[in-house]
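lol ok so funny story. i was supposed to be doing the assay writeup but got distracted and ended up predicting the structure for this chain instead. priorities right. anyway since i did it might as well share w the group, maybe its usefull for someone
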Amino acid sequence: MPCLAPVRPVCYTTPLNQNLDPSVEPGSNPDVRPEEEPGSLLVLALLALIAGGAAGLICAGFRLALEEADRLRDRVIALAHDGGFAGFLLVTGGAGLAVAAAAWLVRRFSPYASGSGIPHVEAALDQQLPPAPPYLILVKFFGGLLAIGSGLALGREGPSVQMGAVVAHIVGRISRRGWPDRRALLAAGAGAGLAVAFNAPIAGAIFVLEELVRRFDTRIAITALGTSATAILVARLFLGDMPDFHVPITAFATMATGPLAYAPAASWPLYLGLGVLAGLLAALYNRALLTAVAAADRLERWPVELQAGVIGGAVGILAWFAPGLVGGGDQITQRVLAGGATLMLIPLAFLLRLALGAVSYAAATPGGLFAPMLVLGAQLGFFCGALCRMAFPDLGIAPEAFAVVGMAAFFTGVVQAPVTGIVLVIEMTAGFTMLLPMLAACFAAILVPNLLGSAPIYDSLRQRATRTGDARAKNIR
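and the output, tada:
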């Protein structure tokens, strides 16, 4: 795959595209707008708090609805096994119909709701595509609920990021802010969505600066911090204060400040090796995902609902035989981090989840990539950690520690946003003692894909979104 050149961030001095933002007067200079004055910064900060609260409420509701959908799917599968072949048809047919319905919602009402939504947010920030309309929130919420709840290996963070961005942009439009402030709110709202999706407020703010705008901007930083803080405050009223994943305290961690012991210096080369392997597999994952999406594009004679229904039915078959392998994957990650995974089955489960994630994304339904990536990273890290413990018993290696580092390393290899990956995993697992091993592993995990010419996944998906965005918009009917 050829290396994609990074997209240069749009600075406020760049002339705005009048077709995408008709509120801008021709020939005007964004640098001299009233919203750049110090007094307007306070207004922007207050709007950030409002947007964060609204995003937190919607995204927390989405998380709770997904958790209930997962429980419902497990109950239906358990009961269907008592019905024999009729139960099998119920599970597979029900999954196919639900995924097809999610694809229909996207095609009929909001094509920009397809997939993660993060590439669209990035394109909107760079004015390559217009911001999504308000009704995308409904499509993303209920479409994501149908798709992920049916068992597709997609994450909740994609819908949450895009819904948060839309909510914040609505706040900016209602308050009649100019494009620079609406852009700041849109980016910050996306970060708030990520913060709520993983109960990780700092990662949400960093995600805005490292991945979405790719530079430090004071106004955007203030806005991102405000939205993430308020969103988490609201969300934790419903979701609680605990990290998303619980890592049991290991025998070597009695003197540490977290559940895992500090890694001895002698083990750091092993973490570096883990990063190299994660980088290689991340490049493979990106290629598999893009290949699956391209294959779906070539089946243009098939209605998108039919394609999605076939994928949903296939996932239903897997759910019938192995219900623990489908869905967003939080339960899989938690089982791995708790040391409850069967070592010899991890390679098979890894390959199945890698293929399932790529095929699920090709269904053109709402759903993200972060949660499935964390599953793969945890499985990879735990397996490598277990092998290293057998090879070097005197180092006191805990496979759970490798699982935590593997999550950050695999995320870094795929997205190539190492700071976001490290902070996200630390906030989700309370694995503060793994910071130095994460640095070593993420260094290797981002180096290897770049040497191989593998572009960050969201750069590739954004290029695809900008190519197909106008065509998809014309298909709304």
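The chain has a mean pLDDT of 87. Residues 415 and 457 are 6 Å apart (CA to CA).
back to the writeup now i swear
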